[in-house]
Amino acid sequence: MSEDALKVGRRKWLSGRLVLLVVPSLLLISTLAIWFIKAPYRSDYALATSTYSSSRDILKTREENDEVFLRHGLARGAPAQAGREALADALTTTAGFPAQSTPSRTVLECFQVSQPVISPPAQSQSPGGDQEGDVEGSAEEGSCCTVTLMEHKFGNSYGQPFAGKFSPPPCPFNRVTINFTAVSVGRQFDRLALMYLGDVEVWRTSTAEPTVPPGIRWEYHKDMTHFLSLWRQEQKVIFDLGNIVNDVYTGWFNTTLTATFFTVPDADGYLHGASEPADLILPISKMRGSEGIDSRFTLPEDAALVTIPSGGFPRNGKRAVFSISANGQANEEFWWSNTMESTKDTFTEQLDGSLPGLSPWREVQLLIDGRLAGVCWPFPVIFTGGVSPGLHRPIVGIDAFDLREHEIDISPWLPLLCDGEEHTFQLRIAGIDDTEPIVRITEQVNSNWVVTGKIFVWMDEDADAITTGEILAIDALDPIIKTRQQITQDDGGKNETLTYMLGVARRLQVQGRVVTSTSDQTLTWYQNLGYEQDGFLVDKGYGQVNDLKISGEDFISRNSDDEPFYRTLYNYPLYSNSSYYIAPEGNLTLGAHVNQGLSSIIEGSAVHPTGLEPYFANQCMGQFGDDGVPLPSDYDYRGAFLNSQRDGTAWFFRTGDNKNSSGFGSTKQLFVFGAETDMYGKEKLRLYSRDVEAINSTVVRDDQISYNPPRSHMLAQG
């Protein structure tokens, strides 16, 4: 990466990442101002949001924290030099405390709170590949086995991903899990990483931020069975983790990636809602795997458009699902905290620059042959340096180690896609432009978004069959948008506060008649999404509050049945309050309070693992009765539900002479995962919960409960 690119990375941190704490009196004033100013706006966009507010209240919604002192905001206009110095201090501390204050330390074990992944113990393990990354499985026939896919140290690695060869191991398998382990010491930003099998992105993750010696370590397990068709072939394994190491940023990432292959004796695991792995997976990427390099699209710089040539899509397709992987980086990492385009220059004089604009709303669009086929409203991932590093040690943010993908069922398009002709697939990112009298969505967004896609295809048992039918309807009107803003000025006529409200609602429906060798069905893909945010900037832009919620319902139904074939509901609430204050004598105070949640329900045939697989695959765990017959599942699982709520507070103080600094970081998270069952009419059955709290990088409470657990080989995350 060039020095200019490095400067962009530093500015990214200064503009959004370190957050700031104002003295209590200012916090009290700003919080009261938010209370009184935003209240009148709620009724004005209630009508717009009513189209989705009743879609489903999935689980308990977020409650606001009423401790005024803990509410801080996102500063983006900090003086550059002060921000750089604060960054240098913060990166050499643990939750803000100087290294010299903790003479005796152990390796910090970082972790993401999530449900366990279950895997049998490896019966054999390959020694791994050579320095070029060649890997080869080695195991006795009939046993499970573990293969080392990567052992690599990422230093100055921008544009230089790990590339290795993979050959399927000799042991039989119908299930695959991976284990990623990393260690790092020193000073470093968090980094995004993408894993590919050939041209197909199969996992997106990010790193934790290291500390002074002895540094940090983390481990993450992931079920990768849905990529089974790829694992059964020779592949080029590409792992792209761009990093910079120099005199200032000293942290290398030493990594190991293994894959465990094993067999579930009974296929009943697929009869409880999960889809059987797809027969074919088509990449929607730059397709540079053969060159051993990264295949991502970077928007808006790239045109993320792929043409599948004539005959490239199987003519006997019976189901197809498009999976989107997308997240913002650089100037779009904190897209959810942007202002509206018309008011981005509100504090230009005070902040010596504009705020990021084009609204705090983003939409990822999928187009097939130029027509909108589905959308994704992304989850606002906060990476391990996001808002304030003290919020993420050792408990990292929701999805930080495993960025979720979004499924769009494109089966209603099969009559078109199976015609043997070429077809285009395009991914676009949309924001909102309110500079004209009519507020509209726009493809113009800031840089940059990292996106790829893939198509999972299931084929008719008759290899000579040709899927026919017709697309009956495409209903994809522009979303409903409601917005209002207000600026107040001080006695000198300078802008002092900015309040903005944004409400967005969208419905989308695609219907097609799909005729295969065994069925003639009308398939309907339906999406109903809603977004609302109250944003507030105070103290001439040096303090910011964002209070938002993204919600949605997606499903695919057959022949107008009441029971969808696949259905998901999701709710992403986020409250962020951060601020920045420099006293006249030069003392710097930064701080943040972030409350974030994720709730979801997944029913039916999901492509990606739902987390239920270990609980209904007791046979995989070696559970057998006295007669040697695998034990059945204890429940009939209808769907999976998840509710994760995370609350953190962090602050950092440094004296004006740069000689003394101190800080504080506290995070707690409650995670509940379970199943919907048919036993009592969609009763919710808890399967796993974790209630964990950390203060100043030390876990002070960690209560984990597994309800109805499988009886062996449970691998918990962290």
From TrEMBL:
Residues 141-467 form the Peptide N-acetyl-beta-D-glucosaminyl asparaginase amidase A N-terminal domain. Residues 118-141 are annotated as: Disordered. The chain crosses the membrane at residues 18-37. Residues 118-128 have a biased composition (Polar residues). The keyword Transmembrane applies. Pfam families: PNGase_A_C (PF25156), PNGaseA (PF12222). The keyword Plastid does not apply. Keywords: Membrane, Transmembrane, Transmembrane helix. This is Peptide N-acetyl-beta-D-glucosaminyl asparaginase amidase A-domain-containing protein. It comes from Zalerion maritima.
